[in-house]
Amino acid sequence: MEEAEWVWMDGTLVPWGEAKVHVLTHALHYGTAVFEGTRVFATPRGPAAFRLDEHLERLVRSTRMIGLTLPYTMDELRAATLATVAANGHPACYIRHLVHRGYGEMGIAARGCPTVVSIASWSWGPLLGTGGVRLMTSSWRRNDHTVVPTAAKATGPYLNSVMAKNEALDAGYDEAVLLNAAGYVSECTGANIFVVRDGLLATPPSSAGALDGITQDTVERLAAGLGLRAERRELLRSDLYVADEVFVCGTGAGIAHVSSVDRRELGGPGPVTAKLADAYDAAVHGRDDRYRSWLTPITA
């Protein structure tokens, strides 16, 4: 990855190479951390963070779900984010917010450990490239919400995604889709999934174990602006096979069309996916005034 100059850690900008944690950090041993991924895009008015407040609000919700005390307000986190990106001089970048239980004591509960907050930014292209995504159904099942809070963007449960992603790469695919314990489609390892059939868009609900995605919500709003219907409902694996189009979406991936599912060819991108991808590109780059409120300018 391309290193930047500064990382914000608990109120201070520190050099990238000095942004370190202790080897006995609680989160390193027990996964007690939550995170967010946000993107900054180049716009005619300068770089701007896309839906920053929504990402920060979800970060706050995630800390509450896993029992972390967040020592900063939304306003402070927003200001720190803008300061970090500005200090690194990025015209466009990816932002990673991390809130974790730090070093203080060992043990499962370890309630005496401090909460540490960091913000990093770096240049990072689309995570699934710009070609069609070759998707496979993973043998691993998505975490169940009765076991871990799947609505929290927490680090520990992401081992599930790591296992599925590596399984897909080892098998010669680009990405994996996970089914939940009941056999319904949940999501991919780091992105939500949509199917298009007869012009109707459908995406799994959070009750299927899918993260309530901000890009997922963006797609639904863009679809409404294009006069397209979108709904959240349970999807079977076979729904992916008979779809007219399939695409995945997320902060890291953007909107990426799926060219095949379990070696069943879909081709593409289809017309609906292409329209949504164009609308998304216009929104994030500030070319569509209807969505300007989604952009937070990066100011020094």
UniProtKB/TrEMBL annotation:
GO biological process: isoleucine biosynthetic process; L-leucine biosynthetic process; L-valine biosynthetic process
EC assignment: 2.6.1.42
Transmembrane parts of this sequence: none
Alphabetical list of Gene3D superfamilies matching this protein: 3.30.470.10, D-amino Acid Aminotransferase, subunit A, domain 2
Domain of life, source organism: Bacteria
Cofactors required: pyridoxal 5'-phosphate
Catalytic activity field: L-isoleucine + 2-oxoglutarate = (S)-3-methyl-2-oxopentanoate + L-glutamate; L-valine + 2-oxoglutarate = 3-methyl-2-oxobutanoate + L-glutamate; L-leucine + 2-oxoglutarate = 4-methyl-2-oxopentanoate + L-glutamate
Xref: InterPro entries: Aminotrans_IV (IPR001544), Aminotransferase-like (IPR036038), B_amino_transI (IPR005785), BCAT-like_C (IPR043132), BCAT-like_N (IPR043131), Class-IV_PLP-Dep_Aminotrnsfr (IPR050571)
Keyword annotations: Amino-acid biosynthesis, Aminotransferase, Branched-chain amino acid biosynthesis, Pyridoxal phosphate, Transferase
Gene Ontology MF term list: L-isoleucine-2-oxoglutarate transaminase activity; L-leucine-2-oxoglutarate transaminase activity; L-valine-2-oxoglutarate transaminase activity
Family from the record: Belongs to the class-IV pyridoxal-phosphate-dependent aminotransferase family.
Function noted in UniProt: Acts on leucine, isoleucine and valine.
Protein name: Branched-chain-amino-acid aminotransferase
Species name: Nonomuraea solani
Gene coding for it: ilvE
